[in-house]
Amino acid sequence: MMTNLRGRLDGGDEFDITSTVSWHALAAHQQHMYSLHLRELFVMDPDRGRELVVDAADLHIDFSKNLITRETVELLAALAREAGVEEQRDAMFAGAHLNTSEDRAALHIALRLPRDAQLIVDGQDVVADVHDVLDRMGDFTDRVRGGDWTGHTGKPITDVVNIGIGGSDLGPVMAYEALRHYRHPGITGHFVSNSDPSDLVSVLAGLDAETTLFVVSSKTFTTLETITNATAARSWLLSRLGLSDGDSDAVAKHFVAVSTNADEVAKFGIDTDNMFGFWNWVGGRYSIDSAIGLSLMIAIGRELFDEFLAGFHAVDEHFRTAPLEQNAPAILALVGLWYSNFWDAQSQAVLPYSNDMARFPAYLQQLTMESNGKTVTAGGHHVTSPTGSIYWGEPGTNGQHAFYQLLHQGTWLIPADFIGFAQPLDDLPAADGRSMHDILMSNFFAQTQVLAFGKTADDIAAEGVPPKLVPHKVMPGNRPSTSILAPKLTPSVLGQLIALYEHETFVKAMVWGINPFDQWGVELGKKQAVDLVGVISDDPAPSPLPDSSTDAMVRWYRGMRGRAT
Ligand SMILES: O=P(O)(O)OC[C@H]1O[C@H](O)[C@H](O)[C@@H](O)[C@@H]1O
């Protein structure tokens, strides 16, 4: 019986990707590649550094320091073709219900289509819908930024607090940080996500209720953390303004919502005139370019938000039209899959050489790991190969002084994406008068060089290092990296980078046959947390819990909280 099958669009006709001709060809090719060092690959093909490179919009991506040859790229493209990646990409762009377990389209690409484009899905012109919301967001943004939208006491807004979690937080906060240089000087953004009250308390501590606007962002408007934080924020606001609990006028001036669920928004007490909607075909982790980006739009203004969307769209068009061998998201995905499926790599480092991009790895964790952390195919069968990698990272050069030791000399193969920019947004002269940004980027180039080429025992011995120390100083090299360069960190370039990884995630999922648009794995823990609140906080002490670990811990916790055990 075939148990390990690959999901197809219709969830029925499946085949095992690991038994395809291209998969076997790649496995054989890996045996050959395993014996070659990147040093040799550069000797065998001296132009690879100029030619294993793909340009997509403003992104200049060098794949040459990967454990690949031009033949590898051809074999990987053949695998993608055999997996039907191109057909499924086209189906996604046409609005097919690719999210089969929830019977929905995955149409984030529609969020950045230009105003004059047309995309009819299920009889509805989604481009017109998207631009209606963008226009409403733009008008609201102009009023807040211009001081025309005022709080309950008539003062303009100086602080915007986005309350949301997961996709309703990670995108907004990441982009807000990344686009620091482009923000309105008189309005400060804040982000509250955690149900740990410390998050909200520490943000509110510095705020003046009269000039604070809360943007409650939640696709479902039922997420416990968000509703709990929003409820506490509403109480704080009303008490600071000296108003009673039911003062809906004040709430309407200080709370707006971003959601797909108007009923729940109204129930919370937010005027639905102040609600910005989106659609069930926008997944949470694909939503920063929807109304979920409202706090970002307030920070950078509607024109720059448009540029941000145009950046996404430029990479969408590249992804939609470039042949797989020259397709940046596809190659990024296939090279990543090459390591996880043929070289046993478990993780993927993402290393932005930009302090403002500090939250980008965390953003990618949700995008990639919530999408591709799956053990069953779209058709419900067990997968036959490892799926989603573990994404992690920190900005360079901080990472260099922390975990790069393991990248350079550790026993794991960890492919790394380096992200860097040519033109700085901030620069200062270093002690020698050179640009600090050039020093930062010299580290970028040096690290990718050392990872690839290392340093041999002979070279080290020739430097007069005592023999006892030589093995410790050997730098094995042959450690893969991809360098993603862009002229400058602009709103457009940030949109391009996000779209690059969105489509990278998609291509991998299509080869693995999994659905990257659902996230059933996060549901059970949420439900059990709700069940356990009463168990840990109510009296009398609970009856024995099913497992001894939770039972003992809950009683220990109750004791520490002064409750009956
Ligand atoms: O936007 P919300 O409906 O509040 O959802 C917020 C987040 O929570 C869920 O648990 C999902 O795992 C995420 O994909 C989602 O982004």
From TrEMBL:
CDD domains: SIS_PGI_1, SIS_PGI_2. One of its GO terms (molecular function) is glucose-6-phosphate isomerase activity. Its EC number is 5.3.1.9. GO terms for biological process: gluconeogenesis; glucose 6-phosphate metabolic process; glycolytic process. The active site is at residues 370, 401, 526. One of its GO terms (cellular component) is cytosol. It holds the Pfam family PGI. Belongs to the GPI family. The lineage of its organism: Bacteria, Bacillati, Actinomycetota, Actinomycetes, Mycobacteriales. The gene is pgi. Keywords: Cytoplasm, Gluconeogenesis, Glycolysis, Isomerase. This is Glucose-6-phosphate isomerase. SUPFAM superfamilies: SIS domain (SSF53697). It catalyses: alpha-D-glucose 6-phosphate = beta-D-fructose 6-phosphate. Pathway: Carbohydrate biosynthesis; gluconeogenesis; Carbohydrate degradation; glycolysis; D-glyceraldehyde 3-phosphate and glycerone phosphate from D-glucose: step 2/4. Catalyzes the reversible isomerization of glucose-6-phosphate to fructose-6-phosphate. It is an enzyme of class 5 (isomerase). Its main location: cytoplasm. It comes from the Bacteria. InterPro entries: G6P_Isomerase (IPR001672), G6P_Isomerase_C (IPR023096), Phosphoglucose_isomerase_CS (IPR018189), SIS_dom_sf (IPR046348), SIS_PGI_1 (IPR035476), SIS_PGI_2 (IPR035482). It is found in: Cytoplasm.
